Amino acid sequence: GSTIGILGGGQLGRMLSVAAARLGLRTHIYEPGANPPAADVAHAVTTASYDDAAALGAFAKSVDVITYEFENIPTQALDVLEAIAPVFPGREALRISQDRLTEKDFLSELGLTTAPYKAIDSAEALDAALAEIGTPAILKTRRFGYDGKGQARISASSDAAQAFADMAGAPAILEGFVDFSHEVSVIAARALDGSVSAFDPGENVHKDGILRTTTVPARLSSAQRSDAVLLAARILNALNYVGVMGVELFVTPKGLIVNEIAPRVHNSGHWTQNGCAIDQFEQHIRAVAGWPLGDGQRHTDVVMENLIGDDMDRVADLAAEPDCALHLYGKAEVKPGRKMGHVNRIQRGKA
Ligand code: ATP
Ligand code: MG
Ligand code: MG
What we know:
Layout (H helix, E strand, L loop, with lengths): L2 E5 L3 H12 L3 E5 L13 E3 L6 H9 L3 E4 L6 H8 L8 H7 L2 H10 L7 E4 L2 H11 L3 E5 L9 E4 L5 H7 L5 E5 L5 E9 L5 E3 L3 E6 L2 E7 L5 H17 L4 E10 L2 E8 L9 H4 L4 H9 L12 E8 L6 H6 L3 E5 L10 E9 L4
Parallel strand pairs: 1-2, 1-4, 2-3
Antiparallel strand pairs: 5-8, 6-7, 6-8, 9-10, 9-11, 9-13, 11-12, 12-15, 13-14, 15-17, 16-17
Helix pairs in contact: 1-10, 2-3
The chain binds adenosine-5'-triphosphate (ATP) and magnesium ion (2 copies).
């Protein structure tokens, strides 16, 4: 069988490896950190940094195709890898999603609606942008933010100086605050032959910037549901994308607003493990391995709940709970805010 190289050894790399193993494929993880969660279930692990060209080259030679579980892969590492093995979803998807400004420009050019935004590189630029966009607004670092990190809310223009100081000199983007009723996401896949398949949109609830629960089905009219799926397909096609993508949306009375895209399997798609014959991880492996996409139709209602930090104290109870599928990532150390696992609660008899 062939071997899939995966950049990143976190829980997403782990669940991708499990899905690959079920298809008779092997995975080779590349991860700078020690003891990554994916190491337990992968066929091989390389522990090296992303500027180690020799290690990257040897890794690329040992695999048939390369994918990734996070979007912040340095361009120089891609240069080395791409010369040896195909990398999917690919360079363009990474370039677009590594920078919130590039991403919003791309989405706007596609004709999709985003929050109003402006690039911020000085305190004066922030004052000018606030005068135009108004408050409330959110200042975000353009790169490397996740789980709500690198963001500062601006309720009134008097908050501007502190918010700008919080960015610590990093290039930033100001976004107008979207008055949404709720948040949903579409997990969609595109195969090498260009065919596209989307999972049913899920409804997401965040707490302290971190995803808490995803519920399917989401509260959407049938028009909103097809809108969500069609706009996701438009994004995948525009990028000539291969693999699974997560598209986060705000639902407003005026329509769907795209918050951000993630060029990888996505936390809000974990429900598919127990709600579909083919889950997002297998769908991604199928796509990057050049297989046809599988049947991602939802066969039951599901509520996914993340287990974060001390939620691990509830594991014994959760293990005994009926209709509750437990997924743990094997992380040795519990830390506040750290994603340790998740549960999928099957809403039996509902579909
Ligand atoms: P992730 O972990 O999903 O990558 P992130 O750190 O990239 O998160 P965002 O998704 O940009 O951050 O923002 C986190 C949450 O903050 C959103 O899901 C939403 O609830 C809220 N939020 C972000 N931007 C806006 C906005 N412009 N208007 C209103 N709420 C927002
Ligand atoms: Mg994000
Ligand atoms: Mg987000």
